[in-house]
Amino acid sequence: MKYLLSVYQPDGPVPSQDVLARIMRDVAAIRAEMQAAGVWVFAAGLEAADSAAVARSSGEAVLVTDGPYIESKEHLGGFTLIEVSDRAAALSWARKLSRATTLPIEVRACREQL
Q1: Pick from 7, 35, 83, 104: most CB atoms within 10 A?
Q2: Hey, how many other C-beta atoms are within 10 angstroms of the C-beta on 49?
Q3: Mean pLDDT for the chain?
Q4: Cα–Cα distance between 90 and 83 in angstroms, integer?
Q5: Quick one: pLDDT at residue 70?
Q6: From CA 19, how far away is CA 36, in angstroms rounded?
Q7: What's the CA gap between 82 and 39, in Å, rounded?
Q8: pTM for the complete prediction?
Q9: Cα–Cα distance, 42 to 94 (Å, whole number)
Q10: Within 10 Å of residue 5's Cβ, how many Cβ atoms?
């Protein structure tokens, strides 16, 4: 089963280069561990939240607005898609990723088809 591990990043300044270098090193180690275990499917960081746009359907019209879809003090900063046997395995990887990023990780199962 596939799971999306979403990284919640706080709004505000980027961590110092020293802190960011350690985080990126730790994230790379988790990614390598996921790849070695055969669970890693895809991962990506995202551009800043202020570069986002939202398309919202309303009848025949589609309204496009700038910015993230909700007002919040956090935003989606990146994600990892994994394929594991069950939710417990997904949570185990999320714990490791949370330690590496020092950020909250949302775990959500993917539907096979929409």
Answers
A1: 7
A2: 16
A3: 91
A4: 8
A5: 65
A6: 26
A7: 5
A8: 0.86
A9: 14
A10: 23
Q: Which residues of 51-78 are buried (b: 16+ CB within 10 A; e: fewer)?
A: eeeeeeeeeeeeeeeeebeeeeebbbbb
Bridge partners of 107, per DSSP, are 5
Taking 80 as the threshold, does the pLDDT of residue 68 lie above it? no
28: pLDDT strictly greater than 70: yes
Q: Give dist(CA 81, CA 109) in Å, integer.
A: 10
Give SS3 for 1. coil
Which CATH class, in words, describes the domain spanning 2-109?
alpha beta
Domain ranges of the chain: 2-109
Output the CA torsion 36→32→103→8 (10° steps).
-80
Tokens of 75: 């935003």
Residue 69: the pLDDT is 64
Beta bridge partners of 82: 3, 40
